[in-house]
Write a structure and sequence with these properties.
about 30% strand; hypothetical protein PF0899 fold; 2 helices; elongated; binds zinc ion
Length: about 120
């Protein structure tokens, strides 16, 4: 399952960003997930919980922010969104578009207990 390796990846990034003595203080990790990134949010959450269950990150919440698929049209300059991932302008139908958002998967921030925050 693809989501499992992505979840593992997220944990590795937390491990690299947060000093080991603070691992049990990680309360939540917030990720931005593009609608067309090919990841099912629920599966990712499930995988994350399964992996963290027996680790220092037990109880860490995975917060997923869904980013819409958004394109910029090079013909009419309109920015449009669609839910199907079609690289076609919603205004004029041109296919000369640039993908703005919707394919990303990145960690936005890692929240620790108390006020400490690592980004
Ligand atoms: Zn257009």
């Amino acid at each position: 399952m693809h989501e499992l390796s992505v979840a593992q990846n997220i944990i590795e990034i937390i491990q690299q960003s947060v000093p080991e003595r603070s691992w049990n203080l990680v309360r939540a990790v917030r990720v931005e997930l593009g609608a067309m990134a090919g990841i099912v949010p629920d599966s990712l959450k499930f995988s994350f919980e399964a992996i963290t269950e027996e680790s220092a990150f037990r109880g860490t919440q995975l917060i997923i922010e869904c980013i819409p698929f958004r394109i910029h049209c090079c013909s009419c300059s309109a920015d449009t969104e669609n839910e199907d991932g079609f690289a076609v302008c919603g205004e004029c139908g041109s296919t000369e578009v640039k993908i703005l958002t919707g394919t990303e998967l990145r960690i936005k921030n890692i929240e620790l207990e108390e006020t400490a925050e690592v980004s």
